[in-house]
Design a protein that fits this description.
By secondary structure, the chain is α/β, with parallel strands linked by helices. The protein contains 18 helices and eleven strands.
């Protein structure tokens, strides 16, 4: 008998698309929830073809790597929310779901009759999650945005990059993915509350809230001291050394935030030029950052990245080689901690990053590859109690985007 997962028996109706919402609902699916992905009938989630050409899509089995990375453990149904029949089907499905998630612009779900109040009237215990750009209230609530827009709005762009040069985008969709875990946290908290009280509720997160959380100590520093941080490259204003240092074959990050660790760093590198009285104290090292960086760089340039990592790692100094994406993906450490999952999609093997935690009592696994668009429509409706006649009528009325001719 298959062991139950943490969220076995929980049904999630997922209207979200692209990155932030799907990344969060994928975690819920990994935890065992039955995630029903609602797609627009013609092309579905934009992430299915995001960033790749039609020729490349065929290489990946008809969908993009982005879609494969964020949509496992879900089932797919297509609904045309522009049609009365599609909205009727969506409302009936929401009435039988534990969690409803969407990341449409504010007001869209209400216009379709799928807002919180409409669903709550049919399903008082529903947990209704809105994932917006700027939140539900305020002067910017009506504006749409993506990860880069919030990197700009939040100030993240202004502290990223090299001093004196134009802003640099954080290379990954950091705000989207951080927000996806906020979504998961909120849903789990609401489910726990419902377990104790029977009460559903509306929950909200936004790219703005996610970006502000990422910059929380920058904001508080500004509010308390008026300090506005500027780009520092890879350096950090909290301690020194705390940045990338050159090696003979690349670079390494060295972080020694306290005096004991700095002394261990000096001893492990074996260079008397670093063992100076003016570097002994953490505040002195901050004041003499440029001098320290120059002295430490002169040492690391003579060593390979591996040599630096081995020497400093052995004495518990924080150190890491600057990997390429390929080196990091193939490094054995991520596999050792269960950070990789494998499955087949369209007959092709796929490797993807696992959800970022392990539950040893109720372990996660891949039960379903990312679904084809609408592949599970009939199965989903049958599981929700629709009979064959009702499904046929909905199809005839164009609920799924294909209305049969007379």
């Amino acid at each position: 008998m298959r062991k139950q997962k943490a969220l076995s028996g929980i049904r999630v109706l997922d209207f979200s698309r692209v990155f932030a919402g799907p990344a969060g609902t994928q975690v819920l699916g990994d935890l065992g929830a039955d995630v029903i992905k609602v797609g627009e009938p013609r092309r579905g989630d934009e992430a299915r073809y995001l960033g790749v050409t039609d020729e490349e899509l065929q290489t990946f089995g008809g969908v993009s790597p982005s879609y494969l990375a964020l949509n496992r453990n879900k089932r797919s149904i297509t609904l045309d929310l522009a049609s009365p029949a599609g909205r009727k089907a969506a409302l009936a499905m929401a009435a039988k779901s534990d969690v409803v998630v969407h990341n449409f612009r504010i007001g869209a779900m209400n216009r379709w009759g799928l807002g919180h109040e409409a669903i709550k009237a049919l399903n008082a215990s529903v947990i209704y999650c809105e994932f917006t750009a700027y939140g539900r209230e305020g002067p910017m609530a009506h504006i749409g945005a993506n990860d880069l827009a919030l990197q700009a709005h939040s100030g993240l762009l202004s502290v990223t990059g090299e001093p004196g040069r134009p802003p640099v985008r954080v290379g990954t969709a950091a705000i989207d993915l951080h927000g996806s875990l906020a979504l998961v946290s909120a849903v789990l908290a609401a489910l726990f509350h419902r377990e104790r009280t029977g009460e559903g509720q509306m929950i909200e997160t936004s790219l703005l809230m996610s970006s502000a959380h990422l910059l929380s100590y920058f904001y508080t520093e500004y509010w308390m001291e008026g300090t506005v941080r500027k780009p520092m490259g890879t350096a950090n204003h909290l301690s020194a050394p705390n940045q990338v240092f050159p090696t003979s074959d690349g670079g390494v990050v060295i972080i020694a935030p306290n005096d004991d660790m700095w002394q261990r760093c000096v001893d492990a590198l074996g260079e008397r030029s670093l063992d100076r009285p003016e570097f002994k104290n953490v505040l002195d090292r901050l004041r003499r950052r440029e001098e320290l960086v120059e002295a430490l760089s002169a040492v690391t340039r003579k060593l390979t990245s591996r040599e630096v990592v081995e020497r400093l790692g052995a004495v518990k100094v924080n150190v890491a080689k600057v990997h390429s994406v390929g080196e990091a993906a193939d490094d054995p450490q991520i596999a050792a901690i269960g950070g990789i999952v494998t499955f087949e999609a369209d007959g092709r093997p796929v490797k993807a990053v696992a959800s970022p935690f392990n539950l040893f009592g109720t372990p996660m696994s891949v039960e379903r590859p990312p679904p084809g668009l609408g592949a599970d429509t009939d199965e989903i409706l049958r599981d929700l109690g629709f009979d064959a006649g009702e499904v046929a009528a909905l199809r005839e009325q164009g609920a799924f985007g294909v209305k049969k001719s007379a």
